[in-house]
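Bench notes, afternoon.
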Amino acid sequence: MSGPNPIRRVCVVGSGGREHALAVVLGRTADVVVTPGNPGIAGGTAEGHIITCVHTPAEQIEADLYVIGPEAPLVDGLADRLRAAGHLVFGPGADGARLEGSKAFMKEVLAEAGVPTARFGVFSDPATATAYLRTLPAPWVIKTDGLAAGKGVLVTGSLDDAEADIAAKLSGDAFGDAGRRVVIEEGLTGPECSLLVLCDGQRLAPLAPAQDFKRLGDADQGPNTGGMGAYSPVPLVDAAMVDRLVDEAVAPLVGTLRARGIDYRGVLYAGVMLTPDGPKVLEFNVRFGDPEAQVVLPRLDGDLAGLLAEVADGSLRTEPRFLPDAAVCVVLASDGYPEAPRTGDVISGVGDAGSLEGVTVFHAGTADTDTDGVGTLVTSGGRVLGVTALAGTIGAARRRAYRGVSAISWPGMQSRSDIALAAAGVAP
């Protein structure tokens, strides 16, 4: 293939921190329209290109390239509908998006592909599920089969808690129909990493690895969340390890998808644990990670719009390059997150944080209220802001990010104080 035409206008679908990061980096070389976007994205500019937000459905927006951010519209087949209308789309069809739409399907494909992963079972009956649970050593991992916005996973060493979670999920009380089937896995040990890999249906191009922090509190305490921070690069994951992960985990998966007739064009997000027995896949997601996107994409050295267009076109030939700078993102969450996030709290200091050297504040769960003609920024979701900083080292980026965090406040704001602490070489 000769490749796609020059990309002058990109439509990004979504409203979170990932989409804010996509818009900013895509905006280096193209105009960007985001639907529905958020107050932090709206009215932005990047190196002379315009970034706007609209509430128009993506199918009604004219663009040279469509980039679908969240998993739900991918599972719902938005990429298929846009492709059927003749558009260039970055994001898998509904068949490929099942990797995230059904964890049972994902594990089935991993087993078929021979990808190293945790032992598992899939259950819809509480008694059978509990019996299987008791055959595994602690800790246990209980996952909803369907989409649960990154919050359908329990990792616990308590048998009582594990059994109660199974009962709540299978009854529909915890996650409705998404939880009426569960995947039970053995708990694995070791450091984790996130590897985002571009796939044009056949060819693969890994991006810089990242590490995220799922637990709400410092030292990995508290409940699982959608992610409380991230950093990139990852000292433990060198180029040789990236090649190994692609060869052992991603390439076999893509080969199995192709054998099933699935032409996967988008990004594959491999959540990997580096166990004493070697790398094992925890999960595959079908979109850029959040907050991983907020540390990986700003480090990209080159034309993201052109790169994603090659993927969408099935003509990937550009090798992604990354700046030597490190990036650290600290997520600021609302009071009550993740169980019952409170909204409507007035946010202050975002402009001050964003004016600091090397700091960008990505909006995830914010709203702009209009009081007497004056807009006021308030919380509108669980994860509200991601404060990302770039610098020459992880330690310097971390210091910049936390200076940004200290400038922002609202009642009940939550954040971790140990993001990238170990990687920066600071004793906890």
